[in-house]
Structures are given as structure tokens and as C-alpha cells.
Amino acid sequence: MHGSALAAIRLTWRAARAGTLVTVAIAALSGAAVPVAGWLAKLLIDEVARGGDVDKAVALAVVATLAGTVAGVLTYVGSYVTARVQRSVSLHVQDELCATTNSLIGLRYFENPAFHDRVRLAAQAAHGAPGTVTDFGLEVVRKVFTIAGFLGAMLAIWPFMALLLLIAAIPAFVAQLMIARRNVEMIEAMTSTMRRQSYYQMLITEGDAAKEVRLFGLGDLFRSRMRSTLAETTGAELAVRRRSTITEAGFAVLNAAVAAVGTAVVVVGAIRGTVTLGDVSLFIAAVASLQGAFTSLIMQFARVTEALRLFRHYVDLVGSTSDMADGTRPVSALRKGIELRDVWFRYDEDGPWVLRGVTCTIPFGATVGLVGANGAGKSTLVKLLCRLYDPDRGTIHWDGVDIRELTVAQLRERIAAVFQDYMSYDLSAAENIGIGSLPDLDDRAKIRSSAQLVDIDEKISGLANGYDTLISRMFIDPFGGGGGGVNFSGGQWQRLAIARSLMRTDADLLIMDEPSAGLDATAEHRLGTTLRERRAGRTSLLISHRLNTMRDADVIVVLSGGRIAEQGSHDELMAADGEYSGLFRLQAEHYQDDRVVLP
Ligand SMILES: Nc1ncnc2c1ncn2[C@@H]1O[C@H](COP(=O)(O)OP(=O)(O)OP(=O)(O)O)[C@@H](O)[C@H]1O
Hints:
The chain is an alpha/beta fold. It folds into two domains: 2-319, ABC transporter transmembrane region fold (Up-down Bundle), CATH 1.20.1560.10; 333-414 and 544-592, Rossmann fold (3-Layer(aba) Sandwich). It is built from 17 helices and ten strands. The protein has helices spanning 2-15, 17-49, 54-102, 113-157, 160-205, 210-215, 219-272, 277-319, 378-385, 408-413, 429-434, 444-453, 457-461, 490-502, 521-535, 570-576, 579-589, and strands at residues 337-345, 355-363, 367-372, 393-398, 401-402, 415-418, 509-513, 539-543, 555-560, 563-568. The strands form two sheets. A six-stranded mixed beta sheet has the order 6-7-8-3-9-10, with helices on both faces. Helix 16 crosses helix 17 (579-589). The model has no long low-confidence stretch (mean pLDDT 87). Residues 111, 347, 354, 372, 374-380, 420 line the site of adenosine-5'-triphosphate. Adenosine-5'-triphosphate is lined by residues 111, 347, 354, 372, 374-380, 420.
């Protein structure tokens, strides 16, 4: 808890030093202004009651008004400065969360629901906690001045009242801490449900699912699920809120009873002439202010404990070690090849093995084709080569060095890949291609030449704003005169993805996972030629279910159930009459037609 509090304070300090200092100063001044106004009011009433000096009474009235005005103005200025500090903290937190997520080397965390719950809790807590802790700190500063200012008056008029107020505050303190604990438990328990609610909402409101939602009539189904998850979280929130309202109302009654006792005692004293009228006014103001100060401090303290319990998720997340250890050895250009030695892999500790002892070589300068049925483990192998996961057993070697020893960023710089589930970015055409090689993001000539290789240059050049056109209907195109951008067809998006990978002209390893799945026959043919040229002198791994694209691979590896079933050249595998030859013949059969005369 102390650690979390310090972390929250440090975070606020790092995010907004000057703002924090100004807020503390304003809090001290506005805290002091309240008792000053109370004392001035007492002096004024006593002056009037004893029929004293008019000038003095007027001066007191003016100063009391001024003190009230200053306190009022400080409240507004204080809330503006506090808002500024909170914005800075939010920015800082958002940035730090993104940096933490970016620093994860692999994909394991992204597939863990508990990680996503924690990210959500961390984001929520980190936005609130620093503000809550600083608010509490400021409230303490303010209230210390208020309490100090009024306590003297109370002790002078009826000291027992101070004890009474303290005793009345103890049960409120305990109850608020219990409410805070329950609230944290509720938030932690509801995070998963809240994420599901956001998911259903996204399915309904965002474009990706809109087609299927309409075709299959899923709108009402998702809407009712959204409503039931929302009802669940709202119900849990309201249950906690109900308890806290009942508790707070109970303590308000207790406070009123204590104040009534105190007022009665002092009023009797005034009637008997043991205290002045000014003392009565000061006493009443002191009781109200001290009760207000205690209640506010207790509530804020409870909010702080609540916020800090949740803030633990942020501290743990930001301070957590990465999912995989980065290597330290620099990566030099590939010279011999890549070797997989008895690689075993599964996604979950208790899940089925996806790769079961894969041993094979991707020789330098060769093109290796990887084929196999759905779920055979082809894409998994690609992810292991890019070190998005590490093998559970066995090793992968880059020119004889275990890739876990290599600096992962350098390793990835040497790989150009098109994943089977490539991304379609809501960015401009130029950016969609250029981000394949960030240093060349502004190199329009290089971007165009990548686009030309996959025959998409003409299409992009013909768009209203050429390469600057936004390829998205989600956002307003900054160059589009207030309208949205354009959308591409599936095959056109795939061409963009291939062009993106081709930006890495210096890559040693070219990986293409189903690069032509969405391409028309002409484009597939031309892509085959382009890739052949690009592959010359380079090492490549090609995955495709269209076996005709594999014919000119130097080696074809057939994966089956996570094991290598067979490997060899096309001719060797056809002669072996095994799984590959069976699949090849099956596909070839569908292309045979007596009317097609082969040259
Ligand atoms: N992120 C994941 N978490 C858990 N299991 C996964 C994950 N990705 C893939 N799998 C499982 O691993 C197995 C191999 O999947 P992989 O994507 O490597 O197959 P593939 O050979 O590329 O198939 P396809 O030809 O359909 O693309 C499948 O049974 C799949 O269910």
C-alpha cells in the first residue's frame, strides 16, 4: 500500500511538477481562508453586540468579505490547476501503458485474458489513483489549516465537544474503509464482464462485423448480451453504492445529533452570559467545519485506499518483466541458413502439442516451401521463426546461433514477412506500405516501387489524393474534403500487405504465409514472378495451399500433425508418392479439361 502510494505520488510529480506545487499552495491558502473568515465573523458580531467602534466594525466586515472572496476565487483557480495536473497524469499513464505493452517481445500475454483484465484495471486505476492521492494530500493540507483554525476556538468555548466529534468520527472511518474494500472487490470481479460488454458493443457499433451482423441477423443477440452484461455490472455497482448511501446517511444523522448537543450547551452558556454571541457564531461555524473536515478526510482516505488497491495492478504491470528475455548478441547477415532442431511447441502448458519435434533446415539462398493441412502448424512455425514465441523444447538457429541469444529487434529487422492474418491499417496508402520499413516511411519512390511489384501502383495513383489517400472508411480523410477515405477489396489489401513486406529490401529471410490467397489468377502469376526475382540470392519460406506455387521451391517440407511427414524437391516428393503427391494430384485433377491445350 505504501509502495503504491509512493508510486502514485511519484507519478504525479513526474507528470506535472509545477502544477503540483501550485495546487499545494492553493490548498493551503484556501484551507486557511475558512477559519480566518470564521474568526473575523466572530470579532464582527462581538463588536456589533457590544455597540463598539463603527469604523472597526466596517473594516472587519470588509476584511471578512475579502477573505470569503479570496477563498471562493482560490477554489476555482485550484480546480483548474488540479484539472491540468490530472490531464498531464492521464497522458503520462497512457503513454507508459503503451510503452509497457510495446516492450513485450512475444505474443503470450496478448492471448491471456487475465492480462487483458489487468491492462484494463491498470488503465482505469492509473487514471484515477494519482488524482485521488493528490486530492487527499491537498485535502489534508486544507483541512489541517481549517482544523487548526477552529480547534482553538472549540477548546476555548467547550473543549469536550472536540472529543465528542472525534469519537463520532471513528465508526464512520471503519465503515468507509469496509465500503472501499468491497468496491475494489466488485471492480476486480466485474472487469471481465465489463470487457465483454465493450466487445458486444464494438460488434454492434464498429464496421468490421457489420456485414455478418446484418446477414445473420445478429444485432439483437449482441444487443441483449450487451444489455445483460451491462445490467450485471450496473447491479454490482449499485449494490455497493446502496450500502454506502445507507452508511453515510446514518453518519449524517449521528453528526447532526452531536452538533445539536454542542449547540444546545453553548446557547445555554450564552443565555447565562458565560460566552458571548460571537462565541456562539464561532462555535457553530467550528462544529460545522470540523465535522465537514473529518467527514471529508475520512471519505477521501477511503477513496485513497480503494484507488491504491487498484493502482497495484498498474504498478505490477508497468514493473513486470517481459514475457521473454531479449538476447544480447548482434545479428549479422545470414550466411549459412536457419536450422530447427527438434522443436516442440504448444500454446498452453496443458494444451496439445502443435509442433512435435520438427527438425529441418532452411539453407541460405534457398526457397523452402511449407505445406500441410489446416492446423498442421505452419503459421505456428513462422511465429517461432520471428521469435513471437519460444519453443518449449528444442532450438532454432540463425547461422548456428540460438535465436534466443540474438537481439530480437535486430533479428526481426532481417525478416520480411506477410502473415496469413496480415493487418489492414486505417492509414494512408503510402503509410500502409511505408511502415514495412520505418526509415523509408517518407521515401515515396521506394514505396511506389514496392507497390509496382504487386501491381497496385496504378490503382493507388488513380485515387483522388494518390498515395496520401486514406484507405479507411472509419476516419475522415484529412485530404478528402471532409469525407471518409476509400476502401479496398480483399485482394487489394493483400497486395498492400505484400508491398509492405517488400519494403524490406535488405531482409535476409522472406516469409510469405499464403501470400496469394486473395489474389486473382493474373495477380498470382505476376506475384510468383516477382517473388522469384526477389528471392534470388535470398532465403525464403513460402507457405501455400496452392501447390502449383510450390513447384519451384528448392525444398518442400510437408507438415502433418506437427511433425515433418516428408521433405524433398517437387520431383522427389511426386516420385515418393506420399502425402504431397496425393494433395498435388487432387488439386491438378480439378484443372484438367480436354479443351485446354497445353503448349
Ligand atoms: N494463438 C493460439 N492459441 C492457441 N492455439 C492456437 C493458436 N494459434 C493456433 N493454434 C492452434 O495451433 C494449431 C496449428 O495452427 P496453425 O495456425 O499453425 O496451423 P496452420 O498449419 O497454419 O493452418 P492453416 O493452414 O489453417 O493456416 C491449430 O490446431 C490451432 O488451433
